[in-house]
Amino acid sequence: MQNVNQAEIDKFSAIASKWWDPESEFKPLHDINPLRLQWIEEQVGKPLQGLRILDIGCGGGILAESLAKKGATVTGIDLAQQSLTVARLHSLESGVKVDYQCISAEDFAEQHPEQFDIVTCMEMLEHVPNPASIIQACQKLVKPNGHVFFSTINRNRKAQALAIIAAEYILKMVPKGTHHYESFIKPSELMRMARHAGLYLQSLKGLEYHPLRQVFFLSDDTSVNYLLSTRK
User: Fold this and answer.
1) Pick the CATH number of 6-231 from 3.30.499.10, 3.40.50.150, 3.40.50.2000, 3.40.50.300
2) 231 annotated as ligand-binding
3) 57 marked as part of a ligand binding site
4) Where are the domains of the chain?
5) What are the pLDDT digits (tens) for 96-131?
6) What does the CA dihedral 10, 11, 16, 17 come to, rounded to 10 degrees?
7) Is 88 marked within a binding site?
């Protein structure tokens, strides 16, 4: 059985054509991408040029292309075929080469153990039935001493108010029904799953949104959105 929620796949497939529209439902991903990229570079501590990177749950390729622009050899995997079609078309248009494949993280890990310097899994864990299985696959895919990066949403009433009620219903930053509170993951839970898989904490950072300035920024407040850096 694949670790996939078909309703989640269908939800993102329905709006796949909008992946590269910076004013669409994917605007938040475009807005936070420079922050994610800079944070990854800082955690790695050296240029990404020449490194092998896997982006799990790559969607339309927003992060994957930005990593490839840094000179990395990038593979992006996802189970939403429509999103991958958009990603491949955009790659052809931009001239930024990324190898996109429709395959689960678990199956890909069986085929490519310890082949990547960096594995990223951003804004995905809250959309799968078994996040621990994805984390285990990340550990299997990354080389010894390699980096694995996660980002997801904390599970508390503040996160429910901001990530669901405010973001989906008031500010309408993302489509209604994008997130489900019961699927959110506390940092302590994510760190525990990572340790159990053999990944060890390097850094924990919060991702906040300023509604008046309409900008995202990194902080030490992990009460809603947060990013986790680990090493094997």
Assistant:
1) 3.40.50.150
2) no
3) yes
4) 6-231
5) 999 999 999 999 999 999 999 999 999 999 999 999
6) 110
7) no
